[in-house]
Write a structure and sequence with these properties.
The chain has 168 residues and is α+β, with helices and mostly antiparallel strands. It contains 4 helices and 4 strands, in the order αααββαββ. The protein starts with a helix and ends with a strand.
């Protein structure tokens, strides 16, 4: 009789181990996966709540930010109307006593949202430097690249460079 009870106990134990391996263990994996998903959703909701609070703060302070936003808006050139920017270049050159020839490049770089211009300047070195300072202090976001200058005579410098200006 003891042997029979031992065999039945052993069979029940083996069946319980098999049940736990095939049924309970995968269920624990699913519980763990669902816990990770729940944690991700909770973190996402928390981030959205923080973002909503920041948006509300921005809305409340919008009138305080508005002058700065309008000023920043003027720093970009309208891609359909580059005339105003070219007039700015010509006026800056005139104030710097430098002759400038503006050559708009073939196309706007729409992906980068920039307009590219080639500039050829002639005038005194101080006038050319003054012109570059005008561009730097101007109302537009400009990047000067490929600058080259040569001294054509005692008081005259010929310079060529490419500028990129940010557009909307």
């Amino acid at each position: 009789m003891d042997k029979k009870v031992l065999i039945i106990s052993l069979v029940i134990t083996i069946l319980l181990v098999i049940l736990s391996v095939f049924f309970v263990w995968p269920s624990l994996g699913q519980v763990e996966e669902q816990s990770r998903k729940l944690s991700y959703v909770r973190d996402t909701i928390s981030a959205f709540d923080k973002e909503a609070v920041e948006i509300e703060k921005f809305k409340q302070n919008y009138n305080n930010y508005l002058p700065n936003l309008q000023e920043m808006s003027r720093m970009f050139v309208e891609p359909d109307n580059l005339v105003g920017f070219i007039e700015f270049l010509e006026k800056s050159a005139e104030e710097s006593e430098v002759y400038v020839e503006v050559q708009p490049q073939v196309s706007l770089q729409k992906e980068a949202k920039t307009a590219v211009f080639g500039l050829s300047c002639s005038g005194s070195l101080s006038g050319t430097v003054n012109f570059l300072e005008h561009l730097e202090r101007g109302n537009y976001l400009i990047n000067v690249t490929n600058f080259s200058a040569i001294n054509s005579d005692a008081n005259k410098v010929e310079s060529d460079f490419i500028i990129e200006v940010l557009t909307r």
